[in-house]
Amino acid sequence: MKILVCISHVPDTTSKINFTNNNTEFDSNGITFVINPYDEFGLTRAMQIKEATGATVTVINVGSASTEPTLRKALAIGADDAVRINAEPTDAAFVARLLADYAEEQNFDLIITGRESIDYNGGAVPGMLATYLDIPFVNACIGLELKGTKSTVIREIDGGKETLEGNLPMLLAGQKGLVEEKDLRIPAMRGIMMARKKPLTVIEAGEAVKQTSVLGFELPEAKAACTMIDADNVEQLVELLHSEAKVI
Amino acid sequence: MAVLVYAESWSGSFKKATFEAVSYAAQLADKIGTEVIALTIANNNNSTQLGKYGVSKVFTIANDSLTTFNNQAYANAIIAAAESTGADTIVISNTNNGKAVAPIIAAKRGAALITNVLDLPSSHSPFTVKRKTFSSKAFAQYSTEATQKVISITPNAIGAIETNKSAATESFDYTATESDNRLSSVSVDKAKGKITLTEAEIVVSGGRGLKGAENWNMIEELAELLGAATACSKPVADIGWRPHGEHVGQTGIAINPELYIAIGISGAIQHLAGVNASKNIVVINTDAEAPFFKAADYGIIGDAFEVVPKLIEALKTYKMNN
Ligand SMILES: Cc1cc2nc3c(=O)[nH]c(=O)nc-3n(C[C@H](O)[C@H](O)[C@H](O)COP(=O)(O)OP(=O)(O)OC[C@H]3O[C@@H](n4cnc5c(N)ncnc54)[C@H](O)[C@@H]3O)c2cc1C
Ligand SMILES: Nc1ncnc2c1ncn2[C@@H]1O[C@H](COP(=O)(O)O)[C@@H](O)[C@H]1O
Asked: What are the distances in angstroms from CA B132 to CA A144, B48, B116, B153?
């Protein structure tokens, strides 16, 4: 069995977000980049399947050379090989098309992505990729069990969850639940050493069309000072929520 | 030319996010001088309600093969409706089901997809719209030159506007194909009688400061009094005090209610990312230095186990008098 895990390279969750060039570009100065947290759940689930069934796990990213340390980290966690498609990932349809061109030739049984990238929060690449490949797509996936090519998956729905069944191949966009937080794999020394010798193939991007562009960014307005209320006077809070905030 | 809005139903009826999306689509159509058509699937006969939010025509699909949500089939049904009405803009709610169909529709139609949209477009040529990015740490203006568009609207960001229009309904047919049915739904577990977190006007949330699952009774009581949904910080869900579906923040659910009440939550940057779009924030924390106070509108420095019961009493008194 062949599994593909799509990895997006994103600013660490502790990052303060700033923009440069007249607020048209993300300022990556001083930012640490990491594997997109949602993708980590998928990568760990892929490792578990690999251990149970002997599957091979390929990780892939569409990005510039600066994303290679993130791919190496995925190799250190245990992926067998990595692929980088050399292009700036500025539009979801563009990224999905490049990923599809690669995946089409490789016949993966299972493709796992994250629910969304925590930078642009598009939640767009997975469903587009599945559609280009004409395979089923499960969003917000919080559980996966495989029996041969039969797959049982659980997806989060608004206010609950749904269990689905189907046959591979399919694409799952995962999140916490696919594995538990405590089971997430992190690179160990041995893995880091081994990762240096694993293949990281760079492919030049083919033709793909961009559909959207970002004209500019803005930061939320700073909050006015907080109104402090005495713990013995919660009635004042109720009054303010009623008369000032007008929410009750 | 027309605008098509997918009017999502849950268990046969509409929710608030649907009216918001419909209202958005109606305003959009009005601005570009075209017609807006709504499509509902497996809705139990309350489709005419949509007229109130500005649509004149509602297509209803009541096909047995589409009784339960199926993202492939629903996406194809929406595409079929768009084709039959000549719609080039499709509006969808950015709910879990909306997120499961929107990229399929966009990929099949070669349409531009813009998700997490917060506002009506600031320009129509090129189409330019504000959306959330960096998990609500920032906003971006996205633009597209594409004629075919799929626009997915953040719940709770844009109010539904009532009009005095009324809608005519027309049945539309789509039958799921074999390829639509490659995945089959085995079961649906609904969280018990809860208000959907992303749609809730008020959210009451607890953190590690509450010390144990057993202490959530007062959080639930407070939420019930306020008609609020309950949420929690990430460690609380990780320890198992609360279900994962309640975890809000950068790596959980992002929300933007009218009022967010954070109890025993420190206000880490990852937590704030998912909640700071809330219009009003109340923080209750023993630690005057908790970072959350910097992001709050109203703060109480105090022990949750004393403050929350008092707040419950104060609200009961308020409710009796109002
Ligand atoms: C990759 C990554 C992603 C993350 N994503 C998220 C996310 O999406 N959402 C999220 O929430 N976190 C996230 N976190 C975790 C985040 O960094 C914080 O650890 C977490 O938000 C802290 O939760 P907390 O405030 O409940 O607990 P704590 O930080 O332990 O804070 C507890 C608070 O309760 C107060 N307190 C204690 N006793 C009382 C009392 N009796 N009455 C009132 N107050 C009291 C304390 O003063 C303290 O401020 C993420 C972390 C990482 C590394
Ligand atoms: N540049 C990229 N390279 C590889 N995978 C990506 C890339 N961008 C997004 N993905 C995958 O698609 C998921 C959702 O991303 P997005 O649609 O950008 O929110 C991510 O969690 C990744 O698994």
From this structure: 30, 32, 6, 10
pTM score, two decimals? 0.96
pLDDT in tens, B271-282: 999 999 999 999
Write the residue with the smallest CA distance to atom 4 of ligand 1.
B270
Confirm whether A95 is domain-assigned: yes
* CATH entry, B197-321, from 3.40.50.261, 3.40.350.10, 3.40.50.1220, 1.20.1630.10: 3.40.50.1220
Q: Is A182 on the interface with B (CB under 8 A)?
A: yes
Q: β-pairing, A170-174 with A110-114?
A: parallel
**Topology of domain B3-182, per CATH?**
Rossmann fold (3.40.50)
- The answer to whether domain B3-182 and domain B197-321 are alike in fold is yes
From CA A171, how far away is CA B274, in angstroms rounded?
A: 26
Q: Count structural domains, chain A.
A: 1
Strands A2-6 and A110-114: parallel
Render pLDDT for B302-311 as a digit per residue (tens, 0 to 9): 999 999 999 9
Q: The domain containing residue A14 runs over which residues?
A: 2-218
**Residues A40-68: pLDDT tens digits?**
999 999 999 999 999 999 999 999 999 99
Helix, strand or coil, per DSSP, at residue A181: helix
**A123, A160, A217 ranked by CB distance to B115: nearest:** A123
Compute the distance between CA of residue A20 and CA of residue A16 in angstroms, rounded to an integer.
Answer: 13
